[in-house]
Amino acid sequence: MLLSKQISIIYFLRLIKWDVMAIFLYACLVGALDYLSFFKTLSIPLSISAMVGTLLSLLLAFRTSQSYERWWEARVIWGAIVNDSRTLIRQLIQFLPKDEQKQTFIKDFAVRQSVWCYALAESLRKCPSSQKVEQYVAKLDKDSDNRPNLLLTKHAEQLDELSQNYQLNANKQVQLDNTLQRLTDSMGKCERIKNTVFPRSYSVLIHFLIYVLTTIFPFGLDDHHWAIEICMATIVPVLFIAIERTAILMQDPFENKPTDTPMTALSNTIERNLMEMAEMPIPEKSPASTTFYLM
Questions:
Q1: What are 81-138's pLDDT values in tens digits?
Q2: How far apart are alpha carbons 132 and 183 in whole angstroms?
Q3: Is residue 7 part of a domain?
Q4: Is residue 6 part of a domain?
Q5: What pLDDT does 86 receive?
Q6: 289 in any annotated domain
Q7: Spatial separation of the C-alpha atoms in residues 146 and 24, rounded to whole Å
Q8: Region 227-254: what's the mean pLDDT?
Q9: How many domains are contained in the chain?
Q10: Domain of residue 177, residue span
């Protein structure tokens, strides 16, 4: 789990309550039809229901696998952001010659990089900017619709200033530029995942097959009792709905949900590490917020 406490079953039930209710009502309707004179003699072998269930299982397995791959890719990207953020400050500590301004430059980069992480997380989650980001952007001479990109541009401008002031050799400039490029690539990968919608056709087909299974399942059961038919015609499709909902939770890792990539916690870790490297006061861990999950 990504949270310090487990996600309650109530949270998950709230996500599927309308689907469960719709399936239950539809199962009641189909169960009632099974007792009408015209449909009472109709019998659909359970092998047909088993075939539909097998097809559903294959589709859900593919859907769940693809959703997990998106979630895991997002986590790998943010792992790279953690590493590259530390590398950037470590390179500056190593490459810049010792003088009175060295520590000032390192502190500027450490603060800006930590703010960049928070700004990127807030941009991906489409939630209001935190006070920390707002205060830093207010100090700049301009704002942008893409604040993470703006902050990386400020990185590039100051790196250019450093290369001119300290006459850094080409090898050191290339290494710093490569680190900045990796951060830019990570930002672009996150934006690609955020803006790429999972094909809607999968959900439509899965829901269609679930209701097909709900329709034919009661006609293959022995007519022992109407309540048993309704329960079985509800429980089996709901299990498939629950699996699909799990895939939906994972397919969008930047939607400010408990199952998201833990960007806030990672940003706070990066900030604490960079402040320590820059010999600045280490901030406390981020408190809980009402606008995003502390993950």
A1: 999 999 999 999 999 888 888 899 999 999 999 999 999 999 999 988 888 999 999 9
A2: 20
A3: no
A4: no
A5: 96
A6: no
A7: 46
A8: 83
A9: 1
A10: 15-197+211-277
CA distance from start to end of the chain: 10
Q: If pLDDT is split at 50, 70 and 90, which confidence band does 3 have?
A: very low
Within a 10 A sphere around the Cβ of 208, how many other Cβ atoms? 10
Phi, psi for residue 142 in degrees, rounded to 5: -155, 165
Question: What tens digit of pLDDT does each residue of 128-162 get?
Answer: 888 899 999 998 888 888 999 999 999 999 998 88
With respect to residue 2, please indicate whether it lies within any of the assigned structural domains.
Answer: no
**What are the structure tokens assigned to 174, written together?**
């290339």
Compute the half-sphere exposure of residue 163: CA atoms within 13 Å on the CB side of its CA.
Answer: 15
Non-local CB neighbours of 13 within 8 Å, separated by 6+ positions: 20
Q: Around Cβ 13, how many Cβ atoms within 10 Å?
A: 11
Spatial separation of the C-alpha atoms in residues 91 and 175, rounded to whole Å: 8
Contact 230, 29 (CB under 8 A): no
